[in-house]
Design goal:
TIM Barrel; 8-stranded parallel beta sheet; 10 strands; 15% strand; globular; binds nicotinamide-adenine-dinucleotide
Length: 280
């Protein structure tokens, strides 16, 4: 993508840029999603994270078309669902996603889960490499991959995934997965960056104090922490004022003391499914 002036971007191992803060649209119904994405684009977001399984790619596509924003100023991610893994199905699934999105290419295409019981993620990775070579995906990556899954695709393939998108929030900081990615040149994206609302952020020890110190909300502190940790985030909200709040995190910085306090919030609390169990 062409780097827009108002976006903080990080560089993928493809050399392309990705805005470090975007909007996620998990569980946003198709009939609401067009308005949600249009609101986000108006507020200033340029990075949208969707997936085939969210059943809202068509709405994301309608919003992009209606926005009139040049394609090269947007970063769009979608994901290959588990039942589409394997050589016969993956190419069809990407074609369908592109058609629904109304796009010639996605900026990032991810294998949504390794689904190890299907035993297809390694062959699927070789398909992903073809999609990158064909220009249908500017970058390819994975989601919910543990180091042992990554090792297998690194051994079999010739491209290092650009991204591993994993559950990551202050109570579940994924240090091991992130260190592995860093060693290999794989950037980490956080899903559920606010813990999906499944626990009270306010109960994390010390978070209220850090927010008060910076005159920011606890959600803004958590998002700022992700950014300073070098993680890519796309919090979900369907409310325009919250989208604006979540984007308003570039005018303050957490200091070393705050960052140390945030590290101590890691209780190993996963709110989602373990990658080995995501075999739907
Ligand atoms: P999230 O951590 O972004 O939390 C969303 C919840 O936080 C919503 O209930 C929302 O109302 C609330 N919220 C957002 N901003 C707020 C604010 N400023 N103040 C108060 N509450 C606020 O959870 P998520 O949506 O699951 O994760 C973000 C994105 O990650 C998803 O939309 C999706 O794109 C992606 N994702 C990927 C996977 C995967 O398996 N790869 C899984 C889940 C989500």
């Amino acid at each position: 993508m062409k780097t827009p002036a108002n976006q903080l971007c990080v560089t993928l191992n493809t050399g392309d840029q990705i805005p470090q803060l975007g909007l996620g649209v998990f569980k946003v119904e198709d009939n609401e999603c067009e308005r949600v994405v249009l609101d986000a684009l108006e507020v200033g977001y340029r990075h949208i994270d969707t997936a085939m399984i969210y059943l809202n790619e068509a709405a994301v596509g309608r919003a992009i078309a209606a926005s009139g924003i040049p394609r090269e100023e947007l970063f769009v991610t979608t994901k290959l669902w588990n039942s589409d893994q394997g050589s016969d199905s993956a190419a069809k699934a990407l074609d369908t996603s592109l058609e629904l999105l109304g796009l010639d290419y996605v900026d990032l295409y991810l294998i949504h889960w390794p689904a190890p019981l299907r035993e297809k993620y390694v062959e699927t990775w070789l398909d992903m490499e073809k999609f990158a070579a064909q220009g249908l995906a500017k970058a390819v990556g994975v989601s919910n991959f543990e180091p042992e899954h990554l090792e297998k695709i690194l051994d079999a393939g010739s491209i290092v995934p650009a991204i591993n998108q994993v559950e990551l929030h202050p109570a579940f900081q994924q240090r091991k997965v992130r260190a592995f990615g860093e060693e290999k040149g794989i950037l980490t994206e956080a899903w559920g960056p606010l813990g999906q609302g499944k626990y009270e952020l306010a109960e994390l020890p010390g978070l209220n104090e850090i927010a008060a110190k910076h005159d920011k909300t606890i959600q803004q502190v958590v998002l700022r922490w992700h950014l300073q940790e070098g993680v890519i985030v796309f919090p979900k909200s369907v409310r325009k004022e919250r989208m604006a709040e979540n984007l308003d995190v570039f005018n303050f910085a957490l200091d070393a003391e705050d960052m140390t306090a945030m590290v101590a919030m890691d209780s190993g609390r996963r709110v989602g499914t373990h990658p080995d169990d995501g075999n739907w």
